[in-house]
TrEMBL record:
Pfam families per record: CheW (PF01584)
InterPro entries registered for this protein in UniProt: CheW, CheW-like_dom_sf, CheW-lke_dom
CheW-like domain sequence ranges: 16-174
Lineage: Bacteria, Bacillati, Actinomycetota, Actinomycetes, Cryptosporangiales
Name of the protein in question: Chemotaxis protein CheW
Species the sequence originates in: Cryptosporangium minutisporangium
Amino acid sequence: MAQQPNTRSEMSAAESDRYLRFTLNGELYALNIFNVTEILEHRQLTPVPMMPDFIRGVINLRGRVVPVIDLAIRFGRGVTAIARRTCIIIVRIPNPSAAEASADDGEPANEGTQDIGILVDVVNKVVRLAPDEIEPAPAFGAGIRADYISGMAKRDDDFVIVLDVSRVLSISDMVSLQSATTDPVAAEAAARSARTS
């Protein structure tokens, strides 16, 4: 078995040209593999009241509450239909409010991150994209906000939209996500209350 890199920085260097390709509403997207921690089969989501509509719910991932967003809703493309190959991609992104808190409290740097699930139609494969294969994000024409896109890559006679995962969620959205996940008991109680009312 190959030895795994010991630090996130070593992994960053090793994975900088590797991207996880997935399909959403018939279009190809990719995320840098550095942000991806795992891929899960779709599972039951617990809805949380008072959250933005693109947050479909939360899952319990080994004792941690992880919010799951629907990229189709986030991009204004309807709702992702749950099917046999629907997946949840778990990504780790910077959490500005947690990073500020950890700086004040002296907590470890990894406390400044947030795990988020991204609901997609199907995960295709990991592909290598050299920097010269990725063109700058277009100002218009991709169908989603330009600041969500870090670039466009041509693959298999089609274009792959490379997402900037840290921008797909805004800072205000991160605050909402944090409030939903910092108190899992309250979030679960709110979800139970919503189901019974």
